[in-house]
Amino acid sequence: AAAGLSYVGAYVINTYKSYDNFLQDKYALLPAVIIICVAVVMFIIGLIGCCATFRESRVGLGLFLAIILVIFIAEVSAFVLGFVYREKVKTDVQGTMRSVFEKYDGKNPESTVVDYLQEQLHCCGVKNYSDWTTTQWFNSTGNNSVPRSCCQQEAKNCTGHLDQPQEL
């Protein structure tokens, strides 16, 4: 279990590099760091449990049980906090995404990240393609279109024009 958690934590940290412009808050990595710390603690606790079982130590097994109960309480607390604060995280991420979309010009590094995100997640805008109508890029181009990264991959002749919403 510790190895699995370590892998998940490392994967989240590695994936974060692709989306760090959208998650400007460095505390966004905190869950991944906590997962890795929990994995290390689980490994140590597993060793304690194995040693206590091997030696048939009542004190060691009692300690192991107490540690497992503390971990269970911590997991329940983390679940409750995640459930309670999910809307705040959603609002924060949407606000950050809107600010990154506002900086879109098709050339800067943030623009590349926006295009990459839209292509990988098969999405357009924060909620939908109409989010682009309020950006500076949309108003400056004057061609009534969204970036080509909004186009569906199957749509071969997609230009991003809003008169063809079925291709976005």
Write up what this structure looks like.
The structure is a single chain. It contains 6 helices and no strands. With 168 residues, it is mainly alpha-helical. It has a domain at 88-167: Cd81 Antigen, Extracellular Domain, Chain: A (Orthogonal Bundle). Helix 1 (2-19) packs antiparallel against helix 2. The longest helix has 27 residues, at 58-84. This is TSN36 protein. Its main location: membrane. One of its GO terms (cellular component) is plasma membrane.
Query: For this structure, what is the CATH class of the domain at 88-167?
Result: Mainly Alpha
**Remind me, CATH topology of the domain at 88-167?**
Cd81 Antigen, Extracellular Domain, Chain: A
Total of helices: 6
Broad structural category: mainly alpha
Low-confidence spans: none
Spatial gap, N to C terminus: 42 Å
- Topology order in helix (H) and strand (E) letters: HHHHHH
The largest sheet, given as strand count, sense and whether it forms a barrel, is: none
Strand proportion = under 5%
Shape assignment: elongated
The level of helicity is 55-70%
Count of individual beta strands: 0
Give the averaged pLDDT, no decimals.
81
Q: In CATH terms, what is the architecture of the domain at 88-167?
A: Orthogonal Bundle
GO cellular component, one term: plasma membrane
Transmembrane segments: 28-54, 61-85
Membrane topology: Multi-pass membrane protein
Keywords: Membrane, Transmembrane, Transmembrane helix
